[in-house]
Amino acid sequence: MVGMIGKDEYKKMIEQYESLDAATVALSDAQSKSMTTLLAGVIIAAILRKKPPIFDNLDE
After folding, report:
1. What are the domain boundaries of the chain?
2. pTM beyond 0.85
């Protein structure tokens, strides 16, 4: 991996990884799950949306 991104970038990545705490991980996980759920809800709502009838009163 060091060969792909370089030694300096690798060191930066390790420093950022070591600075993570539980609150940051939990917040990013919750945000990711809520965005995924919102996107899935919008897609399902678009699929299940009822189209208005062409003719309002067929009996008259």
Report:
1. 2-48
2. no
